[in-house]
Amino acid sequence: MTSPSDLIQGFHRFREQHFADEDALYKQLVQEGQTPKILVVACCDSRVDPALVLDSAPGDLFVIRNVANLVPPAESRSGGRHGTSAALEYGVRVLGVEHIIVLGHAHCGGIRSLLIGGGPREQATYINSWMRVAEDAQKKVLKEFPNAAIELQERACEQQAILSSLENLMTFEWISERVETGKLALHGWYFDIEHGQLLRYDATTHDFTAV
Ligand SMILES: [Zn+2]
């Protein structure tokens, strides 16, 4: 098991092995600031680190991670602390990213709790409240596959929740305007952690296919 002191040793290895090699890159990123072109919405899950899975470099990805990689719809700014929406606003309006990827994944604990209840969801009202973002996806899947095995329902719901998040992205006017004028593209990707595959949503076939 990794401990905090392991991580400090890890930081020293990073300094020696990576920071020294990438010194010029870090200097440039500090002097010129970050200019990522891609924003990724990923899950908090410890197995699904977008920078690692997509083998990207520092400065490449502006990453938002939350439970089940959900994007809530645009809502009134009063009340609520809209962490995901604030990060989206920064990535899109300030950094001017050109792509947003919603990166879902197989065996997502957040989605599982939506389908089978139990676990932290019944004790944790923050998770309960947050997972309501994916309730339409859950209802659609249960209607479409009422008697399917839970594994199939989970996979369908993980993928349907990505589509709900893509729809919700379009409720932010500064996103829909940019999408409609071709300045911003939205993508739904799904990391199949079990089979080591990356699937991409194809809007013409309405299906996720391996890349
Ligand atoms: Zn997850």
CATH architecture of the largest domain: 3-Layer(aba) Sandwich
The averaged pLDDT comes out at 93
**In percent, how helical is the residue content?**
40-55%
Structurally, how many domains make up the residues? 2
What is the spatial order of strands in the main beta sheet? 2-1-3-4-5-6
Please name the CATH topology of the largest domain.
Beta-carbonic Anhydrase, Chain A
What ligand species are in this complex? zinc ion
Number of helical segments with 4 or more residues: 10
| CATH homologous superfamily heading of the largest domain | Carbonic anhydrase
Query: Structural class, from secondary structure content?
Result: alpha/beta
Major sheet attributes: 6 strands, mixed
Radius of gyration: 18 Å
Beta fraction of the residues?
A: 15-25%
Please give the oligomerization state of what you see: single chain
Provide tags for this entry.
single chain, 211 residues, alpha/beta, Beta-carbonic Anhydrase, Chain A, 2 domains, 6-stranded mixed sheet, 10 helices, globular, binds zinc ion
Q: What features would you describe in this structure?
A:
The protein is of the alpha/beta class and 211 residues long. It folds into 2 domains: 1-33, no CATH class; 35-210, 3-Layer(aba) Sandwich (Beta-carbonic Anhydrase, Chain A). It has helices spanning 4-19, 23-32, 50-53, 83-94, 109-116, 120-123, 125-131, 135-144, 150-169, 173-180; strands spanning 38-43, 61-66, 99-105, 185-192, 197-202, 207-210. Strands 2-1-3-4-5-6 form a 6-stranded mixed β-sheet, covered by helices on one side. Helix 5 crosses helix 9 (150-169). It starts with a helix and ends with a strand. The mean pLDDT is 93. Zinc ion binds next to helix 5.
